[in-house]
Amino acid sequence: MDMIVTPTGKLQGEIQALSSKNYTTRYLLVAALAEGTSTIRYPAHSEDSDAIRRCIRDLGALIEEDDEKIVITGFGRHPFPAKQLNVGNAGAVLRFLMSIASFLPEVTFVNTYPQSLGKRPHDDLIVALQSMGVEVEHHNGRLPITIRGGNPRGGKIQVSGSVSSQFLSSLLFLAPLLDEDSEIEVLNDLKSKVVIGQTLEVMRQAGIVVEASDDLMHYKVPGRQKYLAQTYTVQGDYPGSAAILAAAAVTDSDVTVHRLLEDSKQGERAVVDVLRSMNVNLTHENGIVHVQGNGKLVAGEFDGDEFTDGVLAMVAAAVFAEGTSRFYNVENLRYKECDRITDYLNELRKAGANVEEKRDEIIVHGRPEGLEGGVEIDAHYDHRVIMALTIAGLRSKQPIRIKEAHHVAKSYPNFFDHLASLGAQVEWVK
Questions:
Q1: What predicted TM-score, i.e. pTM, was given to this entire model?
Q2: What is the distance between the alpha carbons of residues 23 and 4, in angstroms, rounded to a whole number?
Q3: How far apart are CA 267 and CA 195, in angstroms?
Q4: Whose CA is closest to 303, among 276, 280, 273?
Q5: Chain Cα centroid distance, residue 392
Q6: Would you tell me how many other CB atoms lie within 10 Å of the CB of residue 257?
């Protein structure tokens, strides 16, 4: 379905932040890798979390759930020998489970989103798994991918971190279950280091011993460990909330978002500081962010690798700032559900934004007077692009129509419900 976003001058109200997609995915994984029963409180409900639920169930996990919790009995290092797994459009789920699938004699990850996840490369993880004695059949590093494993070896493991940190997270989740101790070395650069902090936090909560260097480029992981069955509570999600906060920043607003912890290891927590530096009036205390926006922002320069999944929303805010903003160190945005630099900026231009790109930068020449709008734009099946383009529509002179906006459900199914509850004029159309 498409979404019509009509210019909205004022937003007001309170919402509870959705639960973190990243933490939910990781807790579901470590619960499945435990031999025993774990409870996950306040899990995220999204297409990504649905994908990992479906896949770990196919691999033998027993799952019971209600509105507030999921109870999982795991399979440890002995997953059921499923022949086929469907991760939908969830790249992190695919990459995490590719390593776990190396315990199986043969399993194929199918390609159900050829125009999105089907285009994303996974070569760096494939090379690492092959070095561990796992046979991988693939199509130029892309789906469909068949894993033939059974007895992956530990020892010295190398993986590139220049495209995605998810490859490293995948190997970190696997390494404690191997018979041998492992040393993992990250080659080249490591993108989204803050997300590795989340992986390490969850592993340690699950009782795993892992030693990480200060620069997060070297790891020592003893083998023959067991994930412990635990109770986990999922915190609020900063990446999704970034779009709500940006929407409040560019309008006349009085908006409060609950369940956003100040000491969270989510890198996107930095969007609060980004908005402050853009002269947005906000406070952040006791897990509550309160924005009193007047739509008057100032430009700035920001290292986007510190808040990867919040960059697009902050770019949308910068579209209406006074001056020129620069978001640098963002090349890894090109390897997401779509090219989140070229594809996103092309759509912003259709609405009237003055934006330009470099290989690893987004440059925004602000238009405080607002955009023209009055166009139909393509979000490329990408949930982050959908949310960011919605922000642009709130300050356009004419409504914009976002095609296939229902794909926002990948991470934030009730995004438009939350916006509407705050007063945004949004309407589904077929």
A1: 0.86
A2: 31
A3: 7
A4: 273
A5: 21
A6: 26
